[in-house]
Write a structure and sequence with these properties.
Elements lengths: L2 H19 L3 H7 L4 H9 L18 H11 L4 H11 L3 H7 L2 H13 L4 E4 L15 E5 L2 E12 L6 E7 L9 E7 L5 E3 L13 E12 L11 H37 L1 E2 L2 E2 L4 H29 L6 H25 L9 H8 L10 H19 L1
Parallel strand pairs: 1-4
Antiparallel strand pairs: 2-3, 3-7, 4-5, 6-7, 8-9
Helix pairs in contact: 1-4, 4-8, 4-9, 6-8, 8-9, 8-10, 9-10, 10-11, 10-12
């Protein structure tokens, strides 16, 4: 998409987020659900398919454009982005990166329009940070695949129409035996549990899924190749780490805004607390980390677009951004004092919301492992 058209979309999203979604944050928190009016408006704006190629009905944004969009989406509750995050991100990108042309033509236009919501079904009770240990199986029987097993913490599963299911299709150990399949949620044997009760990110639903002799046609093997499951999952997650970092950057900016605004308005001993140097120190630290996060994620997006680094940089920015936004949220609560501990105050809600960023799409500890491994590789190879 050319910059002029993108800037128009970006401006519209910025206005929508700040004038429509932000005023609805308390309602979303209380009801644990994003209003249907907001869902529909987001669909009308093309937000269900901004990362899907234009030839399949999406906006076809570059990674740099995606990151700039996520900086705006991050200004509000993460549950807003979560509605369409799986279509654009980890689930939709499985099809974009690995689907056959027939699979892409069949599903991507419906994902882009919001007619269909897709979920990325990888995590299991015994396979989280190390997905190569997953136990869900897919056995070929005649002209069908038969899937058995279970998944956990699957975002949007409660209202998804299709799942990207990762399952072990042969007896090869580790990651080599993992394939990925298209599984419509109305297929007999698929059971989606009621959505989880979480610490934060109300309005973003996760659920367990059970597969009991679920039969799908052979053509539902994504890419028509059993060997691509694990590499495809990793590629989708790597891309997702950049966008999660951008979301953290956007939310960091919102938290600095809430902190500075409160400090300027709150008076103690006849003075705005913004005049107190210890409060200024907290705000300075938060603004510095927010600035650094934004700069890092824009550079990582540029590196992605230019195919310079699609391995280490995504982990670096996801690790830094998710840790930084947690520190910024903590300072925001501290600046607000007792008020920051009260329900109904934005920083209290965000304090709970941001905790998940250090866990999903690769924990901070997994990012450390990836960063160290890729940093050390050339030195080890030299010896």
């Amino acid at each position: 998409m050319d910059d002029k058209d993108f800037d128009e979309i970006l401006g519209a999203v910025r206005t929508f987020v700040r004038e429509v979604v932000v005023p609805a944050e308390d309602e979303i928190e209380a009801k644990d659900e994003v209003p249907m009016t907001i869902r529909q408006q987001a669909k009308d704006m093309g937000l269900w398919g901004f990362a899907i190629p234009e030839e399949y009905g999406g906006l076809g944004l570059s990674m740099t454009q995606e990151v700039r969009l996520y900086l705006e989406l991050g200004w509000t509750t993460p549950s807003f982005r979560s509605m369409f995050g799986t279509n654009n991100g980890i689930a939709g990108q499985v099809l974009v990166k690995a689907g056959t042309e027939e699979q892409k033509k069949s599903w991507l236009p419906r994902l882009a329009s919001g007619e269909v919501t897709a979920s990325f079904a990888l995590t299991e009770p015994e396979a989280g940070s190390d997905p190569s240990t997953l136990r869900t199986t897919a056995k070929r029987e005649g002209d069908e695949w038969v899937i058995n097993g279970g998944k956990t913490f699957i975002t949007n599963a409660a209202y998804s129409q299709v799942l990207m299911v990762f399952a072990r299709s042969n007896d090869q150990a580790g990651s080599r035996g993992i394939a990925v399949f298209l599984v419509p949620t109305d297929t007999p044997g698929v059971t989606v549990a009621p959505h989880d009760l979480k610490m934060g990110q109300m309005g973003s639903w996760t659920s367990d899924i059970n597969f009991d002799d679920v039969r799908i046609p052979l053509e539902n093997l994504i890419g028509g190749d059993e060997a691509i499951g694990f590499p495809t999952a990793m590629k989708s997650l790597q891309q997702g780490r950049v966008t999660i970092a951008a979301l953290c950057a956007g939310l960091s900016a919102r938290l600095v805004h809430e902190s500075a605004k409160y400090a300027a308005e709150r008076h103690q001993s006849g003075h705005a607390i913004a005049e107190f140097q210890l409060i200024q120190g907290l705000i300075a630290d938060s603004e510095t980390e927010a600035y650094a996060t934004k700069a890092m994620v824009l550079q990582a997006a540029k590196d992605w677009d230019e195919d310079v680094d699609r391995r280490k940089a995504p982990s670096i920015v996801k690790y830094f951004a998710s840790e930084a936004v947690n520190r910024i949220a903590d300072r925001a609560v501290q600046i607000h004092g007792g008020s920051g501990y009260m329900r109904g105050v934005a920083v209290e809600r965000f304090y709970r919301d941001v905790r998940l960023f250090r866990i999903y799409e690769g924990t901070s500890q997994i990012q450390q492992v990836v960063i160290a491994k890729n940093t050390l590789r050339p030195y080890r190879e030299a010896n």
